[in-house]
Predict the 3D structure of the following.
Amino acid sequence: MTRRPPPLRPAAKPSEPRGGVRFVAESPWYELFSRGARDWLRHNQKVRQAVRAQIVDLLAEGDFITQPNERTVRVPIRLLDHARFRLADPQKDRGAGQGAAQPGDLLRPASGTTDAGGDEGAGGNESGGFSLQLELKVDDIIDWLIEDLELPELRPTSGATVEDQEIIREGSGRRGIRARLDRRQTIKQALKRRAIQDDPAPFTDDDLRFHQLRPRLRLSSNAVVFCVLDVSMSMTAVERKLAKTFFFLTLSGLRRQYHRIDVRFVAHTTDAWEFPETQFFEVTGSGGTAASSAFRLTLDLLTEHYPASQYNAYLFYASDGENSVDDRAPARTALRALAERMNYIGYVETRPGTTRFSQTDMRSLIGELIDGGAHAGSQLVSDIGDIWQAIRQFFGHEARMETVD
Amino acid sequence: MTDGPIVVTTLPDYAARIEELARKLGMTYNAVDFELVPDRFMMETAVYGLPVRMRHWSFGVRYIRQLVQRNMGHSRIFEVMFPGDPCRAYLVDTNSLAENVLVVAHVLGHADFAHRNVLFQRSMAMMGGKILEQAAARAHRIEAALSEHGQERVEAVLDAALALEAHIDVNRVLHRTPRTAEDQDVPSDGEADPFLLRWRDLPGEKQPAAPEKPASRAIPSHPEYDLLWFIARHGPQLEGWERDVFLAVREESFYFYPVFACQIMNEGWASYWHACLLREADFLPQDLYVSAIKAHSDVVRPLAAGRTLALSVNPYHLGFSMWERIVETKGLDAARRICAEEDDFGFVRNHLDAELAERLDLFVYEADADGSIKVVSRDIHAVREAILAPRFNFGAPRVAATKLDVDGSLTLTHDSDSDGRGLDIDRSERVLDYVARVWRRPVSLHTVDDRGNRVLNARPH
């Protein structure tokens, strides 16, 4: 209790000043390293993470999928802001200024877009419009999508085909090119030699060792994907766009999983045809709808070209759900036959603007299939966000399958 | 000079002559280490606030803004100076000799200020003067945590700690004594609180009533404004290295505080002395002197070139004008006493008088939400308060930790009465989010909005 408090000022007079001016040598790394740039890169990394978190919204807005030639999209991004406690913006903000002005002077009129004559403009908002145009690669976006889905690594089917040779490094030897110099082995050789020589040279040609190459066979996993599209009159442009987006994203996902992937495009009205990819989305048919035609064509292609032992097979079907009543029984039969062979059948019903609860023929067919224990799924899709859901569902199904196995 | 002109051409030579002059003029300061650095390094040092500091993405944002500003020609940094023992100062190696001569003189002014001013003295007494080494040690510890615990985790802690950077209690000491019991949080005698003791010693003041023993051992026993300390001390699941990060940020805040609290005085004082030194420096060649004086008038000018009005007050100009007037009217000794005893609040309130404010054309404006800006007053009291308003409480809203529940949840309370309005809700929610992540228990914040009391909540995730 009797201890004296620490004095407010260490001493009445500042302690003896040592003074002195020195110039210290500049550190050489200043030119080589920028901590500002390092942290700016980290910021950008975080921006990308943030973009990634909103990727679905981004997809819904941009229509880069319809322009496959554009390999990048530009997204305006606001700089991330490290939040701090701050008072709410007041109705009227007061500040101190300097210059020839009298109370009552209006320095800037309300919502003035143009600066008044002597206006400094430095006060008020410090945030100052500063935004960042982030260029994102479409491939990156797809990578993120797929990564977010945490797609499983699909296993090759048992009778996987042998594909290209792969070159790997193995062992070391005395011959080789400079680029494959095996430093570790070379130094070992030199050390051994120097240990037994009296007046050794640091290195001799005999010390040199090089990595050797060896070809290796690699197993591949193959898959075939059938994209089946209803091109009857009832499919509108909006529905086609939804279908196309769905196919695009699904394929992008599968392409990452399989080393080699075959894609077959089948369009149908009352009859079915196979198309090359370039024409597939341009096809317009007329008349009614008989889905069974497409299913039968798919089955034919499958049995003819893709033996079950070597190929994983997927069918994705997009339609507005309207199928001719007469076709119900044939379609059911064909679908059942397909389900035997397919790893998965995914059905998206494109119904922009319609209520989600109306049942269509096609959907009840797929429903029967699912109830029968087939690997299938169906999704109603009315906007891009739904497509996301659909992909999540389809691939999620695959993931479960893998873990169950 | 009797021994004929001595030819000096290099900066170190000039610096030595200037320092000789400074001593003759009665300036006292700790040794100053100067370093000539590239422009970019200078900019980074200004952005980070220390020659060496932890990495955090928010510095990257500030850096890029600064870079853009510089490239647009808006800002140029002449000098960065860190008071300590020795002081550390940086000069841009591409600036002209004249500019750097001016900066050397200016830095000596800062060093003189730091050596006299009580806030700087106190800060130095609490944390020592090895600025560079201490900063490097802190940065090193955080870098070690980074390699051990990964960037994500360290960043989460820094997000919270740096967001609360300004939330320290500068009236308390840096190294708060560990307490045996939490209820001693209120100093029971004056021992831990020099202010209370001083108060008691003042003639005519009654003994402050002995603080009542709190009925329960509530934590904190009084609103705790040192949020960084509170979190480091009481965070329910904080790991050792996480506390260390909070305390490192807190230590840096204590170091920054005097610079913040004395900006007008300090910049004014340094400008006053560099002007003095240049005036007396008869060893400078004429052209160098003219260039240096031109640089001086660029720094202390009130208005940007070609402008007749500014919506801000240049602290260099204001401080410089005030010190000139104080020395003129009261003498150098009085000025030095003021320099020792005041911070910007005392300085502006006690020494910016109506006459000077009128001469400097200072005014108060009001910016309406509709975008209009109107001059509202030239009254001296209004002007002083408008200048000082952004400087209250380390420039941050007054937010205190008020309750630590048994389940570990934390309640923060914003003192909206003294701040005059509520918090920016959006930002506060985000800060709360940062805090909840390291507090690892629910955190809530009481403030007000247009409709009355408002409670924000954040949960750990």
